[in-house]
Specification:
single chain; mainly alpha; two-stranded parallel sheet; 44% helix; elongated
Length: 183
């Protein structure tokens, strides 16, 4: 089971690598994608009280085994193929980065026109389509770095690989996680 944020298609390669070098060829090996959605400083809580469990498998048998493992947690389970699970992790990370970046842009605009970002964010938070999470704007310097440096997600159609990049404009600041996914 791979829990890390990895480029889409990585688990296919991991499974093939294991099968290619497996000494006992009669063993049945399957790799599952089970991305984590943990916030910094709250890993135990986020594991035990997750909003959902994503499991990406290529067989019903592997899916059933993972459902059995996670059943005691009584959390919603969303089952899909491995590539969809890998992509779900990227989509969530990128959406969160987009929301934070957007609020930072709104904060910059508020600063220019004399509006109060906290009041604007509070007003937005009551809209059920938007929600209250991650509407806090970062400080002025961080907002400037994000707005100058965020580069959009790139997908290479030939390999089906995805990467998200952030480089902090002229300051050269690099922010992100392994494989470039924004956390």
């Amino acid at each position: 089971m791979v829990k890390s944020t990895v480029p889409v298609g990585t688990n296919d390669h991991v499974e093939q690598f294991i099968k290619d070098f497996l000494v006992r060829k009669e063993l049945h090996i399957e790799v599952a994608s089970n991305p984590e959605f943990l916030a910094q400083g709250s890993a135990v809580h986020d594991t035990l009280h997750a909003a959902r469990i994503i499991i990406g498998t290529e067989s019903k048998e592997a899916e059933a085994l993972l459902r059995e493992i996670y059943e005691p947690f009584q959390l919603p389970i969303v089952a899909m193929n491995r590539r969809s699970a890998e992509m779900t992790k990227y989509a969530c990370n990128d959406f969160l980065a987009l929301k934070i970046s957007y609020m930072n842009d709104i904060a910059n605009l508020c600063e220019k026109i004399g509006a109060n970002i906290e009041d604007v964010a509070k007003g937005m938070s009551y809209d059920a389509r938007i929600g209250a999470n991650f509407l806090k704007s970062r400080n002025r310097i961080w907002r400037k770095l994000l707005s100058e440096g965020y580069k959009s997600t790139e997908i290479s159609g030939t390999e089906g690989r995805i990467s998200s990049a952030y480089s902090g404009g002229s300051s050269g600041c690099q922010c992100g996680s392994e494989n470039g996914a924004l956390l």
